[in-house]
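Practice problem: predict the structure.
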Amino acid sequence: GWPSRVGDYEVDNALAEKLAEYPGLEAHWFVREPLDCKSAEYVRKAKSYADAIPFLLFRPKPRPCRWWNPFSWFDSGKVPLVVYLPGNGEQGTDLVKQFRQVGVIGRVVCDEFQDDHQAWLLVPMPPTNANCGIPSGYPVQPRAPLITLYDDLVLKVVEMSCAEGETAPPVDDRRIYLTGLGSGGSMAIAMSLDHPGRYAATAVAWARPHHQPVLHPDAPGNWWFGYEEKTYADMPESYKDFYEKFWGKFRGDVERFGGSFMYRTYSKGEHACWWDVMWESDEFWKWCFEKESECEVEVKK
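Answer:
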C-alpha cells in the first residue's frame, strides 16, 4: 500500500519483436516510494531490495454483452488476475529476458485460453541477485522488502483495472492466483504466507518454502506444488525421507485448517522443460480458477 506509480518502459527492437509474438502484452515500470527499512526492523540488503522493477502486463478484452444468457445477470463482470514470478534466469531490468520461459505467458494470453478463462496476467521482473530475503511465514519475521514490492505491484494492477472503464474488465480481488518458477515460486509462497487470504491459490513449479511454513488457521490457503519426476526418482533416500516428512506436515496443516493441497510430478516428454507440461495442463488451470479467497485476514504477532 505504499505510494507508487506506473511508468512507460522504453521498448527497443528486440523487445518489440517479442511483444509482437504475444498480442496484448505490454511493458511498464513500477516505481514505489522508498521503503523505510529501519521502521520495518529489517536490514536493507542490496541483493534483496529494490524501489523500481519493470513488468509485463496483459489486459483481457471486454466481452460483448450476452443479453440472451439469463446467468449473465449474476456476472459481476470482474475477472481473475494471474501473477507469474520468474526464477533466477530472468532477473535484471531487460524485459527481453522474461521471454526465456514463456510457458505461463504463452498459455494465458492465447485466444483459446482467454475464451475459457478470461484473465489479466502480471509478470514482475525480479532485480539482479534478488528472489531472496524470504521470511519464514506468519507471523515469525517482518516482511521482506522485495516481497512488499511485489505485493504493492499486485495492488496497483487491481487499482488500475478498476479505473479502466470499458477498455478491460476489472480484476476480481477474490480471484488472484500466484504461480512461479524456482526461486520465483518460493517468493510466491512467501507472499501467500505474508498475507493470509489475499491470494486465492498459490501454484508453483520446482519451488518450496525456505522454512517450515506456519499457516494462519483462518486462511490456510490453496497450494499446488509441481516437481520433475526424474529429479525426485534420483534423490538419495535420505532426501526423499526429508521431503516426505516436510510435505506431509505441510499438507496436514493445510487440510486440517480447511485449505487444499496438491502435489504433482511431471516428465517433460517432447517439451523443452517439464514445468511447461504443468502450465499447459487443463487440470492445473481448472484447479486454480475453482478457488476463491474469502478475504485477507488480520495478522497479529
